[in-house]
Amino acid sequence: MNRRKFLQIAGVGGGAALSGCTLKAGASDKPSEFVGMLVDTTRCIGCRSCEVACAEANGLPEPDFSTDVFEKERKTDTNHWIVINRYETEKGTVFARRACMHCNQAACASACLVKAMLKTKEGPVIWRNSKCMGCRYCMISCPFDIPKFEYNSYNPRIRKCIFCYERLKKGQKPACVEACPADALKFGRRRDLVEEAKMRIYQNSDKYVHYIYGEHEVGGTGLLYLSSVPFEQIGFRTDLGTTAYPELTTGFLYGVAMVFILWPAFLLGVNYISKRREENER
To answer: Are 237 and 143 in contact (CB under 8 A)?
Structure first.
């Protein structure tokens, strides 16, 4: 186990233990149905309309449209919650989007001591400024390296895609979905999107890798991806496994709980025995 993964698991475990919240996702209510997004990289044309729409919807700076923007792989940051990268693969150029994966059992939400990072009952993982204390456990616990901290701000915030949560509550789609001219993004119930992805693979078996990224990764994610090439060729981590990170700490937390319960009783017993021995000696 490398250092980053150790910190991720430790952050999830420590945060859930101290906050007293459930391990599943940090949400108080069990959802009946999560929403999600299907990203078909075979349809993406790299126009970056989704980046522009995201910036406009969330009051972020306009994306950089210089000609060399695709020369190196980009990551999301405090001003760019969605980024499109270009990859040269065995099947030619592929454009792939990066953003928060909105995990079904979000490690960042479970690690948050004060529930500032919250897995909502609808599915999006959001961040609440009024509750955050700046511990940044959400950052080290995320297996996709998504939450970013405003280090240069006098009033720093955690910044990431929140799936246009306010728009969803009004019955609208995420801004990026509405802006995509190539129909590369589809929004809906996660269960329906999984079926849609399987149908596309079945009907076009030569076009797609027979795998839906996000269906099972780290317990399943809100963003689901289709690709024409193996996902490691377009920058995706394929070493994450299928177990949700919060579940990895279940046994540890039960052990911690038992220590907290039994240790005081043990100390009281030792103190009682010591006093009785002193009294007998006198």
So the answer is: yes
